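Board work, copied verbatim: MCP methyltransferase, CheR-type
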Amino acid sequence: MRTDKTSLEILAGMIYDYCGIDYRKDPLSLQSKIGLKLKELGLSPWEYCGYLIMEPKEWDKLIELITVNETYFFREENLLNEFQKVILPQYMDRTPENPLRIWSAACSTGEEPYTIMMLIEESALFKAGAVQVIASDINKKVLNKAKEGVYKKRSLSFRRMPVGAYNKFFIELEEDYKVKDSIRESIDFKHINLFDDNIRSKIGKVDIIFCRNVLIYFDINAIEKIINAFYDILNPGGYLFLGHAETITSLHAGFETILTSSVYYYRKGGEYNAAVWSTCS
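↓ predict structure ↓
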């Protein structure tokens, strides 16, 4: 007879195979996240494993329970300044026929891709249609919220808002702020599992990837798979931005590490301006 712990370990393995999120060493943490769901369904952990096989749509509900979606507008100011002041000018010759393509690879409730688009609009470097921003997440619930672009005024989403950003980029409602249509409608939201083997065909080639504070939930094998996919999707010379506590230097994945006085990020091969950047491998 299987114990709940054994069943949770099996469920953790299924989750890992499905999306790379790793609860295999901490099944009790998984239990705390899904306990109410199991009670609601009247299923044991072992029965729930079978339920996921019989009802694949249940994965969407499980993903809602086990993913972390804490984010906010204009997160990591130094990195965003580097993106706006140093990276974007390199692409200012892009046109609607050959647009700059940027992917927010785990967009959660949308604060990151909206921030990216706000910075692009503020830069005034590009004509209409010369930039495409794709935003994706595995969690359909938060993705739907992102598409709406509506946030409570008292939300922690606004904890780091620059002066003047509310009037410039939002419409004030009674209890909420709504992202202006000019920003919201310029982003292509997609439901994407980063463990999907066909991810390139769903995203296409891009020039810049943001995937911040996501890799901390994966083990080294899952990270390697995701980073290899990013490398494949990026155009030569393209950039990868991770969270300030995340590093892939030890993977030797083919990225150059770009160092500045305040941030570091990654670049896919090619030439770069040595007067601006120093690199380490």
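DSSP finds eleven helices and eleven strands in the chain.
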